[in-house]
Structure formats: C-alpha cells, structure tokens
Design a protein that fits this description.
Blueprint lengths: L5 H6 L4 E3 L2 E3 L8 E3 L3 E8 L6 E11 L6 E3 L11 E5 L23 E3 L4 E10 L16 E7 L1 E2 L19 E5 L3
Length: 180
C-alpha cells in the first residue's frame, strides 16, 4: 500500500493498520480534544476526482501528565503543531483525505506544554491532499469517522523521548459533506 503522505509515515508507529482501518488507543480522558463531534466539509471547488473540501477544527491539548510535554512542529516558527488526521473505519483503504503531507526541518523548538497547562489551535483542514500519479484519483475518504493526532514527546527535538501514544489522540469525530 503506498504511503499517501509523509505524516502517515511519521505517525505509523503510533497506529496499526488492519484491513484499511487506522486503529488507535485513545484514552477515556484525552489530552487532545476537538470543539465538535461532527464537522461539515464545505466544497472548495472542482468536480469529480478534482473536488476539494475544507473545514476548521479547534483543537485543545491539555497536559494532564506530571511532566512537561512537547508537541512537534514543522518549523521552529510554525504556529500549530504537526497533526495527522487518521481514518478510523473508512471504506477507502488509503485513510483520510485530510491527512496532510508535511515537509519539515529538524529543530529543537517544539511547543512546550507544562503540567496542567493547555494550548488551543485552529486547524484549517483541506483535502484530498494526495493523488495517484497514474489515475489522478485522490487518496483518502472525504467523509467518515476520524481522529486527530499530535506527536507528543517528553523532550524537545525530533524523534526522541516519546510520551505514551494515547496522549496524542483525540476522540473520534465524524466528517460529513455540506449538501449541494
């Protein structure tokens, strides 16, 4: 199965793919939450396989651990953490169309979140974000059940000191399309 984005490769260790579904272990008391349980994706333009959709998610990450945690960000001055949008039970084996492709640089200026503190991010999700190079068909489902994912670490920098994976998963939410 081709990887549709670098974010999927980066977060593959935090999820298990079985039968085209992303299975994750979010906790009953999540660190990462979203402002809604259902989002309506607006049509941005295009027709058929060229259609694009968009919606806004307000994400809140609260550090409920007793240690400082760090959220990965693409560049040292990026305003939001790197995030993934993981399909939970999409019929499309390629995952979520809103999972972004990231081209980042290494640095040690991740977002530090102190114990008991929180941060809120406004994420403008758009998709599909990747396409088959031969057929030009988009990868990923534009509707269905998904969850947001942040890469949470116990130290700044890239790749070291992972916190428990459950820290980075939001509860499942649903994406629908606006009626045409």
């Amino acid at each position: 199965m081709p990887l549709t984005s670098s974010i999927r490769a980066s977060f593959a260790a935090g999820a298990l793919i079985t039968g085209g579904c992303w299975l994750t272990g979010a906790s009953d008391d999540p660190f990462l939450t979203t402002d809604r349980s259902t989002y309506v994706a607006a049509h941005l333009g295009g027709e058929g396989i060229s259609e694009r959709f968009s919606f806004v998610v307000i994400a809140r990450f609260e550090n409920r651990d007793d240690r400082v945690v760090y959220l990965a960000r693409c560049f040292a001055d990026s305003r939001t953490p790197i995030y993934g949008v993981l399909a939970v039970d999409a019929t499309d084996s390629q995952g979520s169309a809103y999972d972004g492709a990231w081209g980042c640089v290494g640095h040690d200026r991740q977002f530090a979140v102190q114990p008991g503190d929180f941060r809120t991010d406004t994420l403008h999700l758009q998709g599909p974000n990747s396409y088959n190079g031969l057929t030009h068909e988009p990868y990923g489902a534009t509707t269905g059940r998904v969850r947001l994912y942040y890469d949470v670490r116990y130290c700044p920098g890239d790749g070291g000191c992972p916190a428990p994976r459950s820290f980075g998963y939001s509860p499942i939410f649903t994406i629908t399309k606006a009626p045409e």
